[in-house]
């Protein structure tokens, strides 16, 4: 499953997706050098990350997920019909043999451009709901782990409060998970 740069650049959503790609692995994350370049460019220019932090993030991703990097697939781009600026993402998906692109930018991946390749584009919230349906205990455990890891900076951050923060980016997933746990979101 290919994670688009817009998903990787969203810190909280990216963190959850990467943790779910760790053991026990719920899916295999895939990206290309161009997706990682777009991610770090976004982190620096749009999210105001210091370049050193963006470079460190990229290094950590490469270190812990070396199997996720797909070889260059730019030779496929001229025959693709999706939005030009995101053809590299579809090319990566085809090269990897992945069935799914997880992206916030669904409009850049029309059904007609994906169907010939047997690929679908899915919103991150929808894919997280699917993963929760498959392995609810793992998803909840990873969310609890994320909240715990952030307690050094925010001591009173509970898993429920952290889910409320995630609701800004993936509201459907946050509502689904909160409902399944009997939690109320603070948003």
Would you kindly provide a written description of the structure presented here, covering whatever features stand out?
The model has no long low-confidence stretch (mean pLDDT 97). The protein has 2 domains: 2-122, Rossmann fold, CATH 3.40.50; 134-181. The strands form 2 sheets. A 3-stranded parallel β-sheet has the order 1-4-5. It has a two-stranded parallel ribbon with strand order 2-3. It has helices at 5-8, 11-20, 33-45, 51-64, 87-96, 111-114, 124-134, 136-149, 159-166, 171-181, and strands at 2-3, 31-32, 69-70, 100-102, 120-122. Helix 6 links the parallel strand 4 (100-102) and strand 5. It has 187 residues and is mainly α. The chain has 10 helices and 5 strands. The chain is globular and about 50 Å long. It starts with a strand and ends in a 6-residue tail after the last helix. It is 53% helix and 6% strand.
Short description:
This protein is mostly helical and 187 residues long.
Question: Descriptors for this entry?
Answer:
Rossmann fold, 187 residues, 6% strand, mainly alpha, three-stranded parallel β-sheet, two-stranded parallel sheet, 2 domains, single chain, globular
Helix and strand topology:
Layout (H helix, E strand, L loop, with lengths): L1 E2 L1 H4 L2 H10 L10 E2 H13 L5 H14 L4 E2 L16 H10 L3 E3 L8 H4 L5 E3 L1 H11 L1 H14 L9 H8 L4 H11 L6
Parallel strand pairs: 1-4, 2-3, 4-5
Helix pairs in contact: 2-8, 3-4, 7-8, 7-10, 8-9, 9-10
Helix content: 40-55%
- How much of the residues is beta strand, in percent? 5-15%
Task: Give start-end ranges of low-pLDDT stretches.
Answer: none
What structural category characterises the helix and strand content?
mainly alpha
- Name of the CATH class of the largest domain: Alpha Beta
What is the general shape?
globular
Number of helices: 10
CATH architecture of the largest domain: 3-Layer(aba) Sandwich
In whole angstroms, the N-to-C terminal distance is: 30 Å
Rg computed from alpha carbons, rounded to a whole number of angstroms: 17 Å
CATH topology (fold) name of the largest domain: Rossmann fold
Order of helices and strands: EHHEHHEHEHEHHHH
Count of distinct strands: 5
Widest beta sheet: strand line-up: 1-4-5
Largest sheet: 3 strands, parallel
Overall pLDDT level: 97
Number of spatially distinct domains: 2
